[in-house]
Specification:
Blueprint (H helix, E strand, L loop, with lengths): L15 H10 L12 E2 L8 E5 L6 E5 L2 E6 L10 E3 L5 H11 L3 E5 L9 E5 L2 E4 L4 E4 L6 E4 L4 E6 L1 H10 L2 H13 L21 H8 L3 H10 L6 H15 L3 E6 L5 H13 L2
Antiparallel strand pairs: 1-2, 2-3, 3-4, 4-5, 5-9, 6-7, 7-8, 9-10, 11-12
Helix pairs in contact: 5-6, 5-7
Length: 274
């Protein structure tokens, strides 16, 4: 139950037949002009409803003002398709799971990332479903049959990456910085911020400009680093900026991921190179 506004349905609906039976089992609200739209969970609450589309007999689940699940008619039982609308909210994900899980699990996010954030898990596989997800139910092994968009995952060319770091004087800067720290002449700035300090986020142009400018540029870099931040994290931020500046990434097209860890690793690489 979500506060006093929304209660999840008690039974899962895993096919058109089960959704139709659920709709038929719910008595319409007396006195309402719309006798087709009925409360799916708590009676009298219109935040989560179920209805039968008069144009094609589809059964539609609506959350607030959005149709989130559509059970397509045209056959019986497990031969039907289920269409999901990737509306990005935590509540939508939980309602989806309460109705379709564990066969289908949505990981739709409203975070402002310019990369895949509408991930649908079907049959243990994770797909990018930006516009819709069309699911094929079966007694075992549900599958995604429409709506997927391949992931474009950056892969680092390690040979080119090492050469880019040499060309940008990264290794020389790293030796210079570590030497000054060991000599108790740390050029990094004091860390006085609240919370957990973060490494400086370098743009590709900044990183390459200061690294190739010699000691004057190196002091500019060090001055933007914080002593309260692990030096490995600071250097990693600088190194990734060099990779982006020198275009050391290749793109691999991946249709789906077999496990959640692989998905998260790929998304992290995409965020670091965006």
């Amino acid at each position: 139950m979500f506060g006093s506004n929304l209660e999840l349905p008690g039974n899962r609906m895993l096919s058109y037949d089960s959704a139709l039976k659920k709709h038929q089992s719910i008595k319409p609200i007396r006195g309402r002009s719309d006798q087709n739209t009925r409360p799916l969970a708590r009676r009298g609450n219109d935040n989560l409803t179920i209805r039968q589309d008069p144009s094609n007999s589809d059964i539609v689940v609506r959350l607030y003002q959005t149709d989130i699940i559509r059970y397509k008619s045209g056959g019986d039982g497990y031969n039907n398709l289920i269409e999901l609308d990737p509306y990005p909210s935590v509540l939508t994900n939980r309602v989806m799971w309460s109705i379709l899980g564990p066969h289908t699990n949505t990981h739709w996010s409203d975070r402002d990332y310019p990369l895949p954030n509408h991930i649908t898990e079907v049959g243990g596989r994770y797909y990018n479903t930006p516009d819709y997800a069309l699911i094929q139910p079966a007694e075992t092994g549900w599958t995604l049959v429409g709506g997927e968009k391949p992931f474009e995952v950056p892969r680092l060319d390690r040979k080119e990456a090492k050469q880019a770091l040499r060309d940008a004087n990264f290794y020389t800067f790293q030796t210079w910085l570590n030497t000054l720290i060991r000599l108790n002449n740390d050029p990094r700035a004091e860390s006085r911020g609240w919370g957990r300090p973060k490494p400086f986020e370098w743009s590709p142009s900044q990183a390459f400009q200061y690294l190739t400018a010699g000691e004057e540029g190196w002091r500019e870099i060090a001055g933007r680093m914080k002593r309260g931040v692990d030096i490995k994290r600071e250097l990693e931020s600088l190194r990734l900026a060099v990779y982006r500046a020198e275009l050391c990434y290749e793109t691999e097209t991946v249709p789906y991921f077999e496990d959640y860890r692989s998905l998260q690793n790929a998304l992290n690489r995409m965020r670091r190179t965006e």
